[in-house]
Specification:
Keywords: Membrane, Repeat, TPR repeat, Transmembrane, Transmembrane helix
Number of strands: 2
Helix content: over 70%
Structural class: mainly alpha
InterPro entries: O-mannosyl-transferase_TMTC, TPR-like_helical_dom_sf, TPR_rpt
Protein name: Tfp pilus assembly protein PilF
Strand order of the largest sheet: 1-2
C-alpha cells in the first residue's frame, strides 16, 4: 500500500535525526580519543620537565642553610593551634627589636615544617624543589590551555625551568615566599578553565593566597582582569567583579603610608580599567567612538572644575589635556577640542605659562588656523593675558616670548612656512630661557615643540603618538631638576664640607639597609634614570645570565648613569618599533607584561634593597620565557629552530647547575660572589662577618686578617658606611694593635647608628696605648650607654689603680656602687682601694660584702682571714 506524502516526510525526518545522532556519537568518540591521545602524549614531556628540575636542583637537598635562612627558622615544637594562630597574625620578621612584613601563608608553611617535619636543612630544600616542580608543571598546563599548542607550552615551561635566574629562589630556603606566591597565582589562573562563577571565585582565592605569601605579583594581578578578558576567558560582568576585587586589594596592600595616596592609586587603576573596557567595546564595535570622545571631554571638564573650585593639580590637567588632544587628533570631535583648550587655558593661567598657548592649537591641527575667527580668538587671548602680566609685574622676557609666539598667528596664511616659523620661534624662546636661567622647566617643554614639529606629518594624526608624546612631556616637566648656577653649586659644596660627621653618617645608615644611591638622591629624574637602567639590567640578565649574585648593591650597577639610561631607551625603543613593524603583537604583549610585573622592583618609585636582585625577576621571567620561545619560533628553518632551542636549553641548564652548586654553604657563596662583585659594600660585609666569626671561633689570626681585607674593601668602596670601620677596628683590637684599632674607630665614633660599644672599645684601646687622658674621655662616654655602663666603671677604676690615682678610683667606684649596689666586683674594688689607702677596717667591710654577694674565692677568703688576724694582733 503506497505511503502518503506526510508519512514520507516523517520517515525522512527520523532518518535524518538518526544520522545526526550517529554523527554526534562519532564526533564525541573522536574527541574522547583525541583527549586520551593528547593526555598520553604529554606525560613524557611532564617527566622531562620534572627531570630537568631535579637534575639541576636535586643537589641542593644536601646543602646547608644559607643567606637569610635564619630569618624564617622557627623553633621545633609540638603542633598547636596557638602556633597556627601566631603564624597567621604575627609579622613575617620579628627579631632583634625589628618587625616588618605580613606573609601569613609563608609563615604558616615554616611553622608547619618545624612542628611536623623538623628543622633539618634538607627538608626545607626538598620542599622548595617540590614547589618549583609544581610551578613548572602548572605553567606547562596553563600555557597549553592558552596557546592550544603542546610544543609552545613545553618550550616556555622548559625555558622557565632551566633558567639560572631562579637558582636563588629554589636554592635558598628563605625564598619559599616567592615560590608560594607564584604557585597560588598560577593555581588561580588555572581555574579559568572552570565554569562560570567558580572560575572567578577560584581566581580571587588564588590571587589572595599569592599576595598573602608575598606581594611580588601585585602588579601582574592588577593587569590580570584585562589580560584574561582579552583572551575571552571572562565576560564583562566577571571583568568588573575581578577589577573591583583587585581595587580593594590595592587599597589594602599598596605600600603607601597614607590612605589618601592609596585611594588616589586605586582611582587611577579604576580609570585605567575603564579605559581598557571602553577601548575593547569600541574595538569590538559595540560602542560608538563618539560616546568615548564625549565621555573623555566630560572628564576633562570635571578636572577643570575640580582645579578651579577644590584644589589646583597640574598633573590632573596635563593628563586631561593629553587624553583629549589624542582623541581630537584621532576623531576631530569638537567636544575634545573644547576640553583640551579649557584644560590648557586653566593650566596656563595658574602656572603663568600663558605664552605657550598659541602653539597648542597649531600643533593639533594647523589647517584650523586658516579660519579667521579662530585666529582672532587666539590673538585676543594672547593680548589679554600679556596685558594682565604686564600690569601684574614686569616680566619682559615672558612678554618677549609671547610676542614671538604671536608670529605664527600673524603668518598663518603662509601655510607652507608656518611650521618653520614655529620651529624658529620655539628655538629662540629656548635660547632665551637658557640664557636668562628663567623658567628652566620649560627648556624641555620648548625643546619638545621643536622635536615634534620636525616629525613626519603622518604621525600628527596618530592618537597613540599624541598621547604618548604628551605623557612623556609631562614626565619631563615634572622630573627636570631646577637650574643650579655655579655660585649655588659652590655654596652647596661648601655646606657639605662643613656638615657634621653625624649628619653625613646618616647616608651610611641608609645604605646599610638598602645600599641604593636613590636612598639619598630622591628626585624624579634620578628615579626615571634608575628605572631605565634597572629594566636594561634585568633584560640583559635574562638573555645573558652570567655573573649572578646573591646581592648587588652599591657601585655594582651604575644605576644613575644617564648614558646607560639612553642605551636602555634605545634598546627598548628599537625593539618595540621592530615588533610593531613586524606586527608581532603577541611578542609586544609579553614584553609589556614583563615590564608591568617588574614595575615594583624597577626603582621608579621605591628604592630597592641592593638596587636589583635575581629573585625579583622570578614572576616576570615567565613572560620573558614566552617572549624568547615565540622569538625562536620565528626561525623558518625547522632544524635550525630545534637546534637553537636545544643549545639554549643546554647552556642555561649548565649555568643553572653551576650556579646552584655555589649555594651549598655560606662560605662558598659569599666568597665567590664577592670575587665577582668586589665593589659591593654588602657582599664585603657578609664575607667579612663570616670570616670574622670563623676566626674568633678557631682563634685564627689568618682568618681575622682575611676578614679585615673584606671590610677594608667595603670601606674603600663607600667610606661613610660606618660598619666597615667599626669591624676593622674590632679586628685590629683582637689582633693586638690598639693604635690602629683606635684610628678605625675614630672614623665613625660620632655616628648615631654605630654600635655604642665602640666607646668602650675605644677606651680599652686608648688604655692599652697608654693614652690615659683619651681613655678617660671614652670611658665617660661609655658610662652614658646602659649596656656598657658597668664594664666602663670597672675598667675605668682599674685604669686609675694602674696609674695610682686612688682618689679618682675611689670616687668613680663609689659612683658605680650608687648605680649597682649589689655588684660584687665593685665591692671588691672598694676593698682593694681602701687596702692601698691603709684603711684595714673599711677593707674588711667591703671584702665581706663582696664575698657575701658571690666573690667567695679562695684568695678572697684567705686574704680576709689574714686581715682579721692583723686586727686581732693590734
Amino acid at each position: 500500500m503506497p505511503l502518503d506524502q506526510s508519512e514520507l516526510d516523517l520517515n525522512t525526518y527520523f532518518a535524518t535525526q538518526q544520522e545526526v545522532l550517529l554523527q554526534k556519537e562519532s564526533d564525541n568518540s573522536l574527541n574522547t580519543l583525541k583527549v586520551r591521545n593528547l593526555t598520553k602524549s604529554i606525560w613524557p614531556l611532564q617527566l622531562i620537565l620534572l627531570a630537568g628540575v631535579f637534575l639541576i636542583y636535586g643537589q641542593s637537598i644536601g646543602f646547608d642553610y644559607n643567606l637569610d635562612d635564619e630569618i624564617v627558622l622557627q623553633p621545633a615544637s609540638a603542633f598547636s593551634w596557638d602556633g597556627v594562630a601566631a603564624a597567621l597574625t604575627e609579622p613575617y620578621y620579628n627579631q632583634a627589636g625589628a618587625a616588618y612584613g605580613y606573609r601569613p601563608v609563608t609563615s604558616l608553611s615554616f611553622y608547619l615544617q618545624a612542628a611536623l617535619l623538623g628543622n633539618q636543612p634538607w627538608i626545607g630544600h626538598l620542599i622548595n624543589i617540590l614547589l618549583y616542580s609544581s610551578i613548572v608543571l602548572l605553567l606547562f598546563q596553563i600555557t597549553k590551555s592558552l596557546s592550544n599548542s603542546v610544543a609552545v607550552a613545553f618550550g616556555i615551561a622548559m625555558l622557565f625551568c632551566v633558567h639560572p635566574l631562579h637558582t636563588e629562589v629554589v636554592a635558598s630556603i628563605k625564598n619559599r615566599d616567592e615560590l608560594l606566591a607564584l604557585l597560588f597565582g598560577l593555581l588561580g589562573f588555572l581555574a579559568l578553565d572552570l565554569k562560570s562563577f567558580w572560575k572567578v571565585l577560584a581566581l580571587m582565592i588564588g590571587i589572595f593566597l599569592s599576595l598573602m605569601a608575598k606581594k611580588t605579583g601585585l602588579t601582574l594581578f592588577l593587569v590580570a582582569p584585562a589580560v584574561v578578558h582579552a583572551y575571552g576567558r571572562i565576560n564583562n560582568l566577571q571583568f568588573w567583579m575581578i577589577g573591583a576585587y583587585m581595587t580593594a586589594l590595592l587599597i589594602a596592600l599598596a605600600p603607601l603610608p597614607d590612605l589618601s595616596d592609596s585611594l588616589f592609586i586605586a582611582g587611577a587603576y579604576l580609570i585605567a580599567l575603564a579605559g581598557y573596557y571602553i577601548w575593547d567595546q569600541v574595538h569590538s564595535r559595540l560602542w560608538n567612538y563618539r560616546w568615548v570622545c564625549d565621555a573623555f571631554a566630560l572628564l576633562g571638564g570635571i578636572a577643570v572644575i575640580y582645579c578651579w573650585l577644590v584644589s589646583f593639580s597640574s598633573t590632573i590637567l596635563l593628563l586631561a589635556f593629553a587624553l583629549n588632544s589624542g582623541l581630537f587628533a584621532w576623531r576631530k570631535r569638537i567636544s575634545n577640542l573644547i576640553a583640551l583648550w579649557v584644560s590648557a587655558g586653566t593650566l596656563s593661567f595658574f602656572t603663568e605659562s600663558w605664552y605657550l598657548l598659541p602653539w597648542l592649537f597649531y600643533t593639533l591641527h594647523p589647517d584650523r588656523l586658516q579660519h579667521k575667527p579662530l585666529r582672532y580668538m587666539l590673538a585676543g587671548v594672547l593680548v589679554m593675558l600679556t596685558c594682565q602680566q604686564l600690569l601684574a609685574s614686569n616680566k619682559p622676557w615672558s612678554i618677549a616670548i609671547g610676542m614671538i609666539y604671536g608670529l605664527p598667528l600673524a603668518l598663518a596664511n603662509m601655510h607652507k612656512y608656518v611650521r618653520w616659523v614655529v620651529v624658529a620661534s620655539a628655538t629662540i624662546a629656548l635660547g632665551i630661557n637658557v640664557f636668562t636661567f628663567k623658567d628652566p622647566v620649560y627648556v624641555i617643554f620648548l625643546a619638545a615643540i621643536v622635536a615634534y614639529q620636525l616629525t613626519p606629518n603622518k604621525l600628527h594624526r596618530k592618537p597613540y603618538a599624541w598621547t604618548t608624546a604628551i605623557l612623556v612631556l609631562v614626565l619631563a616637566q615634572t622630573a627636570y631638576p631646577p637650574y643650579i648656577s655655579g655660585k649655588d653649586k659652590l655654596q652647596q659644596l661648601h655646606t657639605l664640607e662643613s656638615t657634621d660627621q653625624e649628619q653625613i653618617s646618616q647616608s651610611g645608615r641608609s645604605l646599610d639597609y638598602i645600599e641604593n644611591p636613590l636612598a639619598t638622591q630622591q628626585s624624579l629624574a634620578n628615579h626615571a634614570v634608575a628605572g631605565a637602567n634597572t629594566y636594561l639590567h634585568y633584560f640583559k640578565q635574562f638573555w645573558a645570565p652570567t655573573n649572578l649574585s646573591m646581592y648587588y648593591g652599591f657601585q655594582t650597577i651604575d644605576v644613575l648613569s644617564y648614558g646607560m639610561a639612553l642605551w636602555s631607551l634605545l634598546v627598548f625603543g628599537c625593539l618595540m618599533l621592530l615588533l610593531i613593524w613586524l606586527r608581532c603583537w603577541n611578542l609586544l604583549t609579553l614584553l609589556a607584561l614583563w615590564a608591568v610585573t617588574l614595575l615594583p622592583f624597577s626603582n621608579l618609585y621605591i628604592p630597592m634593597a641592593g638596587i636589583v636582585g635575581d629573585r625579583l625577576s622570578f614572576f616576570a621571567s615567565i613572560f620573558m620565557a614566552g617572549f624568547a620561545l615565540l622569538a625562536i619560533q620565528k626561525i623558518r628553518h625547522t632544524k635550525l629552530k630545534q637546534a637553537t632551542f636545544a643549545i639554549i636549553i643546554l647552556a642555561l641548564g649548565f649555568l643553572s647547575f653551576q650556579r646552584t652548586s655555589l649555594w651549598k654553604d655560606k662560605e662558598t657563596l659569599y666568597l665567590h660572589d664577592v670575587s665577582v662583585w668586589p665593589h659591593s659594600v654588602k657582599l664585603n660585609q657578609l664575607a667579612g662577618d663570616l670570616l670574622y666569626n670563623k676566626g674568633i671561633t678557631s682563634q685564627s689570626a689568618e682568618e681575622l686578617q682575611k676578614a679585615y681585607g673584606y671590610f677594608q674593601q667595603g670601606a674603600q668602596t663607600h667610606p661613610p658606611y660606618y660598619l666597615n670601620w667599626y669591624m676593622m677596628g674590632l679586628i685590629k683590637q683582637q689582633l693586638g694593635n690598639p693604635q690602629q684599632a683606635l684610628e678605625h674607630y675614630q672614623k665613625v665614633e660620632d655616628s648615631e647608628y654605630v654600635n655604642q660599644n665602640i666607646h668602650l672599645n675605644m677606651a680599652i684601646c686608648a688604655t692599652l696605648s697608654s693614652d690615659y687622658q683619651l681613655a678617660e674621655r671614652y670611658y665617660t662616654r661609655a658610662i652614658g650607654f646602659e649596656p656598657t655602663r658597668l664594664q666602663a666603671y670597672l675598667n675605668m677604676v682599674f685604669m686609675y689603680l694602674k696609674t695610682n690615682e686612688l682618689t679618682k678610683a675611689l670616687g668613680k667606684n663609689q659612683e658605680a656602687l650608687n648605680s649597682f649596689p649589689d655588684n660584687a666586683s665593685l665591692h671588691e674594688n672598694h676593698a682593694r682601694i681602701y687596702y692601698q689607702l691603709d684603711s684595714i677596717p673599711q677593707t674588711i667591710h667591703y671584702l665581706e660584702q663582696a664575698i657575701a654577694l658571690g666573690k667567695q674565692t679562695p684568695s678572697n677568703t684567705e686574704f680576709l682571714a689574714k686581715l682579721k688576724a692583723q686586727i686581732e694582733e693590734r
